Structure prediction request, 43 residues.
Amino acid sequence: MEFIQGSSDFASAIGTIWEPIYSFMKPLVTAADGLATLLGLLP
Prediction:
């Protein structure tokens, strides 16, 4: 049971670190995705 608690704390720590990185990267990923779609439409 203690292992599960420890991994839960680990996951929440990862989440705390990842949240700002993800929110920063998401628009870039969306823009890159849109660009790829746009390039795909070109002949």
In short: The helical segments are 2-41. The mean pLDDT is 85. The chain has one helix and no strands.
